[in-house]
């Protein structure tokens, strides 16, 4: 299963670079600076948590499989989809309701990092 997090991390990382370039080149002339900043925030958190997925897979290889690390990986995936995805949708559509989803994704990120901490404490 951790192989899946490596693949997901690679895909999300690839998409973060592609979306960042899309924002810098195609959206720069079409969006207000504030909306472009919102989009770039989504890209930033997606890239960061793509790397976090790779970290989860690496930790699993070093520490052995752990249900806490499995939870961390799935929470990071959910966080990317909910947090970054809602910011992309909000920016591109202007529908403010997507902003209500963003905090749920943020909570997924926080919970994922808490799972990493707990996995570390259990391993030591």
From TrEMBL:
Record protein name field: Uncharacterized membrane protein YgdD, TMEM256/DUF423 family
Lipid bilayer topology: Multi-pass membrane protein
InterPro entries: DUF423
The keyword Membrane is annotated on this UniProt entry: yes
Signal sequence extent: none
Domain of life: Bacteria
Transmembrane annotation, as ranges: 47-64, 71-91, 97-121
Principal subcellular localization: membrane
One GO cellular component term: plasma membrane
Entry keyword Membrane: yes
Family of this protein: Belongs to the UPF0382 family.
Subcellular location: Membrane
Organism: Alicyclobacillus macrosporangiidus
Keyword entries, A-Z: Membrane, Transmembrane, Transmembrane helix
């Amino acid at each position: 299963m951790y192989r899946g997090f490596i693949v997901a991390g690679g895909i999300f990382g690839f998409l973060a670079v592609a979306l960042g370039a899309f924002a810098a080149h195609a959206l720069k002339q079409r969006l207000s600076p504030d909306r472009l900043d919102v989009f770039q925030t989504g890209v930033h958190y997606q890239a960061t948590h793509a790397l976090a997925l790779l970290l989860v897979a690496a930790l699993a290889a070093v520490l052995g499989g752990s249900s806490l690390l499995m939870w961390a990986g799935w929470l990071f995936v959910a966080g990317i989809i909910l947090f970054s995805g809602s910011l992309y949708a909000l920016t591109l559509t202007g529908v403010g309701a997507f902003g209500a989803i963003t905090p749920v994704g943020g909570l997924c990120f926080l919970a994922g990092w808490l799972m990493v901490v707990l996995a570390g404490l259990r391993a030591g």
